[in-house]
Amino acid sequence: MRITSRPADERAGTVYPSVNPARTDDVVAEVLLGDADTFVAACTAAHERQPAWADVPAPVRGRVMGAAGRLVEANAEALARLVTREIGKPYAEALGEVREIVDTCEFFLGEGRRLYGETVPSEMPDKQLFTFRNPVGTVAVITAGNFPVAVPSWYLVPALLTGNTVVWKPAEYAAASAHALYELFVAAGLPDGVLQLVFAHGDDTFAGLSRALDAGLVDKVGFTGSTEVGRRIGELCGQHLQSPCLELGGKNPMVVTPSADLDLAVEGALFAGFGTAGQRCTSLGTVIVHRSVHDEFLRRFTAAVEAAPVGDPAGDVVLGPLLDARFAARFDEYLGWIAPHHTVSGSSATGRITADAPRKGFTGTAEAGLYYHPTIVAGVTETDPIFLHETFGPLVGVLPYDTLDDAIRLANLPGYGLSSAIYTTDPAEVFAFRRRVSAGMVSVNNSTSGAEAHLPFGGNGKSGNGSRQSGRWVLDQFTRWQSMNWDHSGRLQKAQMDVADLTADLGFRL
């Protein structure tokens, strides 16, 4: 399968092989990569088509999003199989990811009839005040490949619904999945050119984005990816007085209190830490466990991770391979942060699963794929790199705490602020944690992973700039408020000046 940017860029010449990480000799797609010119051309085309798309009534645009959801649902198994093959996500998780697109489309189908403004009372007679939501214009969306179809839908659906055109640059290592989603959206009735798909390397994309912003072709940027790249995009957009929608990395904490159901906490930690091979932005980073239950939690957690099925993502496994060779190389670097004062458990070895470093019960073909041992690192301290930085892969740290104040301090210390969890039966602990944790999302007796399509999603600090996706809150990312006053009095009435004054007797007393 050979794919290219849409519309096709005849100049594209560099070919990127998107391979199956469970069997790296299986090339899923050959991707013809464009360059900065390709990106600018797509932005130009989208910019030209935006006024006509904005003139389509919002309920009609909503029906297009509804049709996209029905098409995704009808093709759910095929799309999920493609996601599993291309990025190694276990099939059950891939099906859940596809379901999230459907949920998002269903939600925004209705929002096409609820892009409400308000009629506001005026301080003067014979004058009406109104507010309206207008599309921002053309949106550039750049997404990672760990959620190759669900996360893009968080941008595409609300941006298109509100009358914007979109230029989407997905991760090249997930290009086949992105191309399939693009085809489903086009089949839903999008007019030609309203959604532009661009494949390019990161440096070319950044150069093209910079030029498109300089030329006034892009009015909003949405980015999901690393904190480092997010900073660069934020700086670039700031030069143009734009505020991007940034969804970045996380070092997501889970606090386990003395009253916690330990088996439930272990189940949540297993899914949050090792689902998608620990490659979610909401993956569990560190379990912060009260000292009184630390050893028992660690024992149970170790047993659960040791028993977790690992291998072929087409089967019933907790984790499959890493996404791509670049992430495997980076994860090897993170494993180098394990120090002598740490205690490692969870598998028979650390690093890549091989014939010389096997994993009991492993179901894949070790030498053919990018499979890694799930790793628990206990004895973590608050100055360790493994505690302070995101470790994108199947690695979870564990450290003890003594007071809830200390647990919250540790939860906030790395400076990320995406997702968090607390396991407790004490409501006072729940609300103390919720009030003081820096994360944009809090789970109680649940995993750090598992957002629902109608709640705001996003983080603070190193995890983002406070922008939110999903639900009605994302509408503020892709629309601008416009106010209008209509004076039908037949005379000039000056606000704050020509206002009736009914005098109060403020000295009155009973």
UniProtKB/TrEMBL annotation:
The keyword Protease does not apply. Pfam families: Aldedh. Its EC number is 1.2.1.3. InterPro entries: Ald_DH/histidinol_DH, Ald_DH_C, Ald_DH_CS_GLU, Ald_DH_N, Aldehyde_DH_dom, ALDH7A1-like. It is an enzyme of class 1 (oxidoreductase). Keywords: NAD, Oxidoreductase. One of its GO terms (molecular function) is aldehyde dehydrogenase (NAD+) activity. The active site is at E247. The keyword Oxidoreductase applies. PROSITE patterns: ALDEHYDE_DEHYDR_GLU. Residues 13-483 form the Aldehyde dehydrogenase domain. Belongs to the aldehyde dehydrogenase family. Homotetramer. This is aldehyde dehydrogenase (NAD(+)). It comes from Catenuloplanes niger.
